[in-house]
Amino acid sequence: MTNDTPHNDRDAGESGAHQTYTPPNMLKIKVGDGAERIPPELEKKVNAIIAAEKDGYFKMLGEEVGELLKLKAKIVAGKEIDAASRERIYAIGHRVRSEAGMNDLHLIGTVANLLCECLDHPDGVKGSLIAFVALHIDAMGAIYAGGQNVDNNAIGGQIIEGFKQARAKLLK
Amino acid sequence: MAMGHRNYDFSRLSVLLVEDSSYMRKILKHVLLGFGMRDIVEAEDGGSALNTLKSRPVDFVVTDWEMPVLNGIEFVEMVRRAPDSPNPFIPIIMVSGHSEEYRIISAREAGVDEYLVKPLSAAGLYSRMVAIIENRRPFVRTAKFIGPCRRRKKPKHYRGQERRGDGRMAGLGGFDSRAQSQSAVDDIMYKG
C-alpha cells in the first residue's frame, strides 16, 4: 500500500523525495492481543530451557578456548598476527562474548568482548598487539580452567585481578 | 494494542532463523518453541536464507550479523532492495553480539526493524517480537534507502538492560567508548 503523506525521515540523514508505505500487519492479525512484557511464567519456562543447555555449552566453550590457545601459540611463535589467525581469533571471541553471558559465564564473556575490541581498534594498543591478544586469550584459558562456577568463587576474582594488573601495564 | 491479561498466540506464525552458530540456533529455536511457535525454518548463512525465502514464505526473520558467505547485513540489504526479493517488507529482527554505535547505525541503514544485543534473553526477544507486532514502523523509500522508518519513539516496555559485564571488571575500560548497552542501542534505533 502506498500513500503520499509526507513523512519526516530527515533525522536519519535523508532529504528530498520519499514515499511511505504501510505494509499490512499480518503478524498482528495472526497472533491477536497479548501482554507487552513477557509473562513471568513464560519467562521462567524459557529460561529453564536455556539453562538446560549449560553443560553442553561449557563443553563447546572448552573446544573454542582450546582453539584460541593454539592460535595464540602460533602468533606468539611466529611473532605476527596473520590475517587468517586474526579473523579466526575474532570470530571465536565474538561468539564467546555473544553466548557466554547466557550461561552465566560473564567473566569469560567480558574478556572475550575486550579481545574483540582490541582487534577492532588495534591503534588503541600502545605496545605489542600480540602480547595484548595473548594476555586476553590466556585469561580466557584460566577462567575456563576455573570451571563452571568460576564467576562465583574466589578463583575467578583472583584471575580477574591479575588480568587487570597485567592489562594496565600493557596499556601504559 | 497489547493487552495485559492475554497471551499472544504465536502458534500460527512462521519464522526464518538465520544463525551460523549451531548452539545459538538451537537456543533460539528452543526459545521460539517455548513462546509457542511451531513453524521454524533454519538457515546457516545469509545466502541459504535468501534461497529459503524465495521458496517458502515466512512471517518474520530473526538473523545474526556475523556469518559466512553472506552476512546478516548483506542479507537484510538483499531482502529490502534486490529486484527479485520475495518480500521486501518482511519484519526482520537482528540478534547480534555487536553493540557499537556505528554497527547499530549500519543495521538500521540496512533496513533492520529491531536490534537485540547478545547475550540473548527471553525477555529481550519477546519485547522485540511485540515491537514488530504492535509498533511496526511504516516503510520509507528514498533515493538511498528503503526500509522501516528510522525515526520513531522507543516503545515504553523495552527493558534496555545491560547483560554484558561484571562488577569486578569495572575500570578495565575498552577501546571503543561508543560500545553500547542495550538501552543505548535502542536509543540509536529509535531516534524520536
The CATH top-level class label of chain B? Alpha Beta
Strand order of the largest sheet of chain A: 1-2
What ranges of chain A have pLDDT less than 50 throughout 5 or more consecutive residues? 1-8
- The helicity of chain B comes to 25-40%
Mean pLDDT across all residues of chain A, rounded? 87
CATH topology of the domain at 54-171 in chain A: Four Helix Bundle (Hemerythrin (Met), subunit A)
Whole-number tally of structural domains of chain B: 1
The SS-based structural class of chain B is alpha/beta
Tell me, what's the shape of chain A? extended
Explain briefly what this protein structure is:
Chain A is mainly α.
Task: Looking at this protein, list some descriptive labels.
heterodimer, A: 172 residues, mainly alpha, two-stranded antiparallel ribbon, 3% strand, extended, B: alpha/beta, Rossmann fold, 5-stranded parallel β-sheet, globular
Structure explained in plain terms:
The complex is a heterodimer of chains A (172) and B (192). Chain A has 172 residues and is mainly alpha-helical. Chain A has a domain at 54-171: Four Helix Bundle (Hemerythrin (Met), subunit A), CATH 1.20.120. Chain A has 7 helices and 2 strands, in the order E-E-H-H-H-H-H-H-H. Chain A has helices at 26-31, 40-51, 54-78, 83-99, 106-120, 129-145, 154-171; strands spanning 2-3, 19-21. A two-stranded antiparallel sheet of chain A has the order 1-2. In chain B, the strands form 2 sheets. A 5-stranded parallel beta sheet of chain B has the order 2-1-3-4-5, sandwiched between helices. A two-stranded antiparallel sheet of chain B has the order 6-7. In chain B, helix 2 (46-55) packs parallel to helix 3. Chain B has helices spanning 22-35, 46-55, 72-81, 101-110, 122-134, 182-189, and strands spanning 14-18, 39-43, 60-63, 92-96, 114-117, 139-141, 146-148. Chain B has a single domain (13-159, 178-189), classed as Rossmann fold. In chain B, strand 1 (14-18), helix 1 and strand 2 form a beta-alpha-beta unit. With 192 residues, chain B is of the alpha/beta class. Chains A and B meet through strand 2, helix 1, helix 2, helix 3 and helix 4 of A and helix 1, helix 5 and strand 6 of B. Strand 2 (19-21) of chain A pairs antiparallel with strand 6 of chain B, so a sheet runs across the interface.
